[in-house]
Amino acid sequence: MQRKYAAAGAGLLVLMLLAATMPAAVLGASSATTSAPHQITVSFLQAALIAIGYYLANSPWLFGLAFFTLYRPLVAGFFVGLILGDPAQGTLIGAAINIPYLGFISAGGNLPADAGFAGWVGTTVALASGIDATKAIPIAFGLGLLGTIIFYSRMAVDSVFAHWADARAEKADIAGVALMNWLPGQAFLFVVSFVPVFLLALNGPSAVQDALNALPLWTVNGLVIAGGILPAIGIALNMRFIFRGSAIPYFFIGFILMTVTHGSVSLVVIAAIGLCLAYLHLNFVSRDAPLAAAQAAESTAAPVQAQEPKVRLTRGDLIRSWALWTFFAHANYSYERLQGTGFAHAMTPIIKRLYTTPDEIRDALKRHLVFFNTEPNFGNVVHGTVIAMEEQRANGAAIDDDAINSVKSGLMGPMAGIGDTLSQSTITPILLALGIGIAGGTASGSAVPTLSGATGNPLGAIIYMVLVSIVIVAIGYTAWMQGYSRGRSFVTEILKSGTIDRVLIGAGVLGNMVLGALAATFVVVNLAPTVTIAGAQMNLQASIIDPLFPGALALGLVVMTWWLLQRRVNPLALLAIYLVFAIVSAYPFFGPGQANSGDYSYGACTSSLLHQYTPCGAPPAPTAQP
Predict the structure, then answer these.
(1) Mapping DSSP to helix (H, G, I), strand (E, B) and coil, where does residue 376 land?
(2) Global pTM?
(3) Where are the domains of the chain?
(4) What is the CA radius of gyration of the chain?
C-alpha cells in the first residue's frame, strides 16, 4: 500500500514539474511578446455561463469542493477564460487576482471579502476590457467587497428555512428535513448569485473601460502600481498563521532564493526544497506536544458503555451519511444554526437505520437540528463519534440527548481550530501558490509594473484543482471513518501523540518557503526619485538599495503589513490606505515637463514617487550667455 501511495505522489510531482517547465505554446498559453490584449464582447450566453459558474462556486453540487476550487480566483479565471475563448489569459488574470486572497479565511459565518465574486466578475471585466493582469487586482478587490452583500443576505434568509426544517422534524418527516436543508436555500442562492453576476458580466466590461478611459493616465497607472502592492496584504494575512517560532527563517530563505535567481526558479522547485527542509526541521528541531489541547478534548470524552448491538449500521449507511454531509454541509448556512440543518441532513440515513417509531425519529431529528459549526473535513471526527454514540444508544446504552450534544459542542471547537488552520490556512494557500506559480510568472520592474515573462499556463489551475480535491476528500473520509471506529478517544489520541503538532510545524516550514518566494515574485515596490551628485543622477533604489539587498522594499512592505495585522489593524483599512497611497504616489509631482503637461507616460525620470527608475539621459547643454 505504501508503494502505491509513493507511486501516486511521484506521479503528481512529475506532473507539476512538467507543467512548470511546459512551453508557453501549450494549451494556447500566451507569451511575454504577445500583443496587447484585445477587447471582447460578452454575449448573453457567455454572461449566463459565468453567472452559473459563480453560483456553482457557492453551491453544494461539487461534492463540497466548490469552496476549494471554483471559489478561488485562480480557478475562476481559468473557467472565465474558457467561456470567453482565452483560457491562458483568463488563468493569468485569475492568478493575479488570487494573490491578495491567499490569506482568505471564512470561518464561523464571517466573510471578509468574496473571493469568488472577485474571481468570476473581476476576470470577466479585465479580460473583456483588455485590462492587464496587474491592473485587474484593485478592481477585483473592490468587487470582492461588494460580493459580501450576497453572502450576508443568504445567511439571514437561510435562518427562515431552518425553522421550516423544525416543522418537518415535529412530524417525524425525515425526507422533509433533508429537503428543507437544500431546496429553498439553493433556490434563493441561485437568484441572488445569478442575477447580479449576469448583469455585471454582460454590461460591466464596457462600463469599466469607459471609466478607465475617462481617468487621467496617472490615475490608471496608480491602479497598476497598486496591483504590485496589494498582494502584500494577502501574503501577510496568511503569514499570521505560519510566520512564527522556528519556522520564520524559512520565509526569508524562500524570498532570498527567488530574488537572487531573478525568478528563474519555479515555485514548484521552491516547494520541493521546502519539503526537504521541513523533514530536516522536524528531525533536528525540538518541540513540545500540545498537551493542553489534548486535555481539553479529553475532558469532553466521557466513557461510552459497550453493548452487544441489536441493530448495526452498515458501511453503506456510513458512506451515505458522509456523502450527504460532504455535499450539503453548507446548503442552508444560516446565522441562527450555521451548519445545524446540514448536520441533521447528514444524519438521516443513520436515523432511518437505527430508529423505527415516530417518537424516536422525531427526537433524533430535533437533537441534530440545533446549532452546529466546525471545519467540514477535519471536523468529520465529530460526526463519526456522534454516529457511534447514536448506534450505542439505539442498542440500549445510557446515552441521552445531553450527552450527545455535549460531545458535539465540546469537540466542534477544537476540530474547527485544527481544521481551519490546516485546510484554509496551510494546505489551500500552499497548493494555490504552486498553481499560481505554474499559471503565472513574475512581476517585472517596468515603468508601470506588469506581469511579464508569464506563460499563462492553464495547467496551473487544473493541477491545483486535482491536488486540492484529492487532499480534501481523503481527509474528510478518513476523519469520518476514524471518528466512528475509534469514538471520542480519537481526538484525544492524535493530540496526545503530537501528530497534529508535527503536521503544523512541517506545513509551517513549507508554507513560509512558498510565501517568501511568492512575495519576491509578485510584490513590486519601485522608487523613482533620483538625486544629482557631481552632475550624475543616482536613483535611490537602483543605485543604493538594490545593490545592498535586492527586493528589500518589497520584503519590508510585506513584513510591515504582517506586523500591522498582528497589531489588529483591519485588513480592509490597509487595503484602502495602500490603494490611495499607490494612486497618489503615481502623480507626477516633479520632473521635467511633467508639472503642467498631459504627458504622463512616465518616460522622464523623477516624475513620480513610485514607478521603476528610468534614466534621465544626458543633462541639457548650457545656454550661451549674451
Answers:
(1) coil
(2) 0.74
(3) 305-412
(4) 27
